[in-house]
Amino acid sequence: MICGVSCREPTSVFRREDESDTVAQVKPAVYVENSVISYLTARRAQKNVRVAGHQDVTRDWWANKRHSFDLYASAVVVEEAQDGNATAAAARLEVISQLTLLEVTQEARDLAAVLLRATQLPAKATADALHIATATVHGMDYLITWNCKHIANAVIFRSIERACREHGYEPPVLCTPDELMEP
Fold first, then answer.
1. For 24-179, CATH number?
2. pLDDT tens digits, one per residue of 11-27
3. Given the DSSP bridges, would you call strands 70-74 and 29-32 parallel, antiparallel or unpaired?
4. Longest dimension (CA), the chain
5. Counting Cβ atoms within 10 Å, is residue 106 exposed (0-12), middle (13-18) or buried (19+)?
6. What are the beta bridge partners of residue 15?
7. What is the mean pLDDT of the segment spanning 148-175?
């Protein structure tokens, strides 16, 4: 248990019963990175229009789109969520308690080290690489984030994709909540 949040093994098959018939449909798996949770729970930004817009998109996605996906996080998300103001941290941890926590395996740690080298990200981006690696080794379909510097960055994505595939993994789609909207 990490600060009141229990780790649960992800289900091996992500299925839900469709209301109209008995055929099971697969729900895509989404790793929710801490920036999304922070935007979801923070007071609305008053001075930064861009941040306020991201918060609005995040809240809309959470209210209207999240139920179309199976949502996951990891101990890395929990550790980041614990930082800062205690009241804000508690709000973030409450949201995380609704998610299934993925184990941060040795394979994920090894892949994170590979990703740092492949992307030439700075050492301070180790947690960011670990988010990507954990989502990758657990076979997530998507990783949603507002971290467009070190995670959802089109310039480094090809390096991430190549490194993951060279090590036998298919990377998740790295995107922001506004990119993960159903048509």
1. 3.40.50.1010
2. 333 333 444 445 567 89
3. parallel
4. 50
5. exposed
6. 26
7. 95
131 in Cβ contact with 74 (< 8 Å)? yes
Q: What is the pTM of this model?
A: 0.85
Q: Which long-range contacts (CB under 8 A, 24 or more apart) does 85-91 make?
A: 88/41, 88/42, 91/41
Contact between 133 and 159 (Cβ < 8 Å): no
Q: The tokens 């480094």 sit on which residue?
A: 156
CA angle 104–91–7, rounded 5-degree value: 25
Q: What are the residue boundaries of the structural domains of the chain, listed by start?
A: 24-179
- CA distances to 20, 52, 57, 160 from 181, rounded to whole Å, are 23, 19, 10, 23
> What DSSP string runs through the chain?
-BTTB---PPPSS-EEE-TTSS-EEEPPEEEE-HHHHHHHHSPPPSS-HHHHHHHHHHHHHHHHTGGGSEEEEEHHHHHHHHSS-HHHHHHHHHHHTTSEEEP--HHHHHHHHHHHHHHT--GGGHHHHHHHHHHHHTT-SEEE-S-TTTTS-HHHHHHHHHHHHHTT-PPPEEE-GGGS---
